[in-house]
Amino acid sequence: MLATLVDHPVDTPGWLYEVKWDGYRAIALLNKGGIQLISRNNKSFDEKFYPVFHALEAWKINAILDGEIVVLTPDGISRFADLQNWRSEADGELIYYVFDLLWLNGYDLTQLPLIQRRELLESLFPAPDIIRLSTAFRDTSSAEFLSAAKSLGLEGIIAKKEDSIYHTGLRSRDWLKIKINKRHEVVIGGYTRNENSSKPFSSLLVGVFEKGKFQYTGKIGTGFTSAQQKEMLQAFKPLIRKTSPFSTVPDINKPSRFRPNPPKATAVWLSPQLVCEVSYAEITADGVMRHPSFEGMRIDKTAKEVGKEEAMPVAKVVKEAAGAISQQMLTPVVGGDRKTLLNPSEATQVRKVSKHELKFSNLNKVFWPEEKYTKRDMLNYYYQVAPYILPYLKDRPQSLNRFPNGIKGKSFYQKDVTGKAPDWIKTFPYHTNDGEDKNFMVPTDEASLLYMANLGAIEMNPWNSKISKPDYPDWCIIDLDPTEKNTFEQVIRTAQVTKEILDSIKVPGYCKTSGSTGIHIYIPLNAKYTYEDCQLFGKWIASQVHQQLPSFTSIERMTQNRKGKIYVDYLQNRPKATLAAPYSLRPKPGATVSMPLHWDEVKKGLKMKDFNITNAIARISEMGDIFKPVLGKGIDMKKILRSIRP
């Protein structure tokens, strides 16, 4: 059912009012677990707007719903341009606003009065978070509601007769739309290229269908980015034709009052099939838009649907029969967990991250064969965990452990990125034994983190020190490294004893799973001591642990001398040594994560696979970064050493 455009609100009783959402109209069909999400022109939205589709799957009802898919700004306003550019959850908060119920549990409701359909619809809520009920306002005047909409910067409002039935596929005067900003759908009939211009195209030539003829309505030269233009040109290619599709060929070089000598333009004509939305100041007497600006492509409408749309005087439509409102009209977007960066369908995707454009490729490649986790899953994980892992990576040289074909494929270490990384990637020089000058990669932001992951670097391996103080580590590490002969219960007991020793000298220690077979214990130093100081301190701790657990621990550096015992490794405290960062994925079965733990979790029953790519984000979001004190004040090593001397 479609609404009729009018020039001002109704002022008679018996109407309710809704926000005019600026998005794609969509019908949702839910029946016995079968889900379809379709547009006005019967296109499937199942994959394109997959978060809505999955939310509908989780809503266990049997119904047909009418609503609008939108992307909301943080204050709850919908913007069509944001929706048009939406590719994944990282592009904005996708919401399906439901405003009508057409069928429920086998019963056709279209002949019921709207007010009854609304009551039944309200009884179905609450729904999953992405699905919201579009609020209907009754106890207000049309003037108040429109004034509130204007103050919020909305596109417009919808007025609906309370007793109206649902007229499928028809534009009814029982539903009215009042636009605040002048917007219109138009059909693209060509584009121009200005002489000596470097742009992909200079303007779009657009029109509408009127009585079977394609009438020219103007030239759109603003509102699109270069990236949008390039994407649009690809869509234009199969539609190029030799002759103008307009009923009257437009004069594309016509001078105007403010541009008496416009640059010479040439036209490329297109078959009128693609629809876009435009905003404009007004329509001139000859039917041409003034100051039009491109708002976005409309994939939900066919060209033949787009006709001349003029606001009718409301008095002809309805012959018979602001502050508090504003607060109820919009629901702000509540900040929460990061959503995914990459959508689940396209194998290659381009995203702008930290102001840098990254091309993500081979996204369907399976990286963990047993679990079927893909490269896309890995990249989405690192995007979501970025705020937590970056403090442990930023400004620290990185050794890339690359698995381009997943954990079962051939892997290799890459230290040198000289001439191989983009110019915006930060590097740190080093000198090889062969006399060569090379460069480590140094992550600094989300873009560099995702760049590494896109190379197949499943795990993140930073230095213990930053490039600002490369000889002074930020932490001291005790790495508990078992052999195949050891049980994980023995590793847990070794960690507990390490904690007891640290407690006895009043030194804070923070533990995490390695994500492989061991446990890592970090002591904050705050870059106050050299690697030599750090290693000597670590050696003392490791020796104390070994003295208490001699039967299954060792501090021997040579593997053959450990005799199958857990290696209490303090030699990780040396320049250029690397260890998997907190929250890093590991190239191990189960896609395990090196997860920080509370000490009371280090007990019998703890398993490495308890923390993996599927559940780590939920845990981190709930607990926050419990490893953060590692980056804090740091211990007074001299004072501690004085206290433990005999």
UniProtKB/TrEMBL annotation:
NCBIfam families annotated for this entry? Answer: ligD_pol, NHEJ_ligase_lig, NHEJ_ligase_prk
What keywords does the record list, in alphabetical order?
ATP-binding, DNA damage, DNA recombination, DNA repair, DNA-binding, DNA-directed DNA polymerase, Exonuclease, Hydrolase, Ligase, Manganese, Metal-binding, Multifunctional enzyme, Nuclease, Nucleotide-binding, Nucleotidyltransferase, Transferase
List, separated by semicolons, the cofactors it needs.
Mn(2+)
Protein's UniProt keywords contain Transmembrane helix? no
Q: Name one GO biological process term.
A: DNA recombination
Q: Which InterPro entries match?
A: DNA_ligase_ATP-dep_C, DNA_ligase_ATP-dep_cent, LigD_ligase_dom, LigD_pol_dom, NA-bd_OB-fold, NHEJ_ligase_prk, NHEJ_LigD
* Ranges that cross the membrane: none
> In its keyword annotation, does this UniProt entry include Aminoacyl-tRNA synthetase?
no
Q: According to the UniProt entry, what is the EC number of this protein? A: 6.5.1.1
Protein name as annotated: DNA ligase (ATP)
> One MF term from GO for this chain?
ATP binding
Q: Which reaction does it catalyse?
A: ATP + (deoxyribonucleotide)n-3'-hydroxyl + 5'-phospho-(deoxyribonucleotide)m = (deoxyribonucleotide)n+m + AMP + diphosphate
Q: Where would I find the ATP-dependent DNA ligase family profile domain in this sequence?
A: 87-229
Q: Which domain of life is it from?
A: Bacteria
